[in-house]
Amino acid sequence: MAPRIGPLKREDLSEYEPIFKGMVDSIGYVPNSFFTMARDPGILNAVGALSDAIWYPATVDEPLRRLVTFAYSHYAGSYYSSAHCACGAEELGLAREKIMNIFEYETSPVYTNAERAVLRLCRHAARIPGEVTDKDVEDLKQHYSESIVTFIVGMICFMAFLNKWNEIAKTRLEDIPFKWASENLGPLGWYLDQE
């Protein structure tokens, strides 16, 4: 699978090394999408700053961030992003059962009512046109402060940008998340042709 927009080489992008190093420290590699975004410095700098805001706050724990970003991406059909968000999630505290049961979130005992409210919002936000209702947001507010609700909405919107970027650019999924997703996410309908 050839990308529609060719990535630049990391060695030619030394000015972005702090962004790349942050990604390596966080997930062990730099997403290929960053090398494509580097063709427009404004986009890469903005995505780097937003990535820092979404992935490193103390207000929302890592398992919840992974659940939101994986579920939204998978519901939206972005297998590149869903693979990224699921790969390594267990090591960061998100139980595999919570990944594997996202289509049964209303009835599966692995979720709390708070997580059900989050997954409902993700599912409704992933629809085109969006199906988010006032009740979806009010349900979240029963479990989370308005600041955390704002953060969750921000995570969903950030993932929507990344999902569309990678779909349009046809970004090649890196080996680590591709291997993990290929071995684990098939029962959820995950498939990505890397040829």
Search tags:
195 residues; mainly alpha; 0% strand
Commentary on this structure:
There is one protein chain. The chain is an all-alpha fold and 195 residues long. The protein has ten helices and no strands. The longest helix is centred in the C-terminal third of the chain and has 24 residues, at 146-169.
- The number of helical elements comes to 10
What is the first-to-last residue Cα distance?
A: 5 Å
Structural class by helix and strand composition: mainly alpha
**What's the order of the H and E elements?**
HHHHHHHHHH
The parts where pLDDT drops under 50 for at least 5 residues are none
Q: Helix share of residues? A: 55-70%
Shape: globular
Structure summary:
The protein contains 10 helices and no strands. It has helices spanning 17-27, 32-37, 41-55, 62-76, 79-86, 96-100, 113-126, 134-141, 146-169, 175-184.
Topology:
Elements: H1 17-27, H2 32-37, H3 41-55, H4 62-76, H5 79-86, H6 96-100, H7 113-126, H8 134-141, H9 146-169, H10 175-184
Helix pairs in contact: 4-5, 4-7, 4-9, 5-10, 7-8
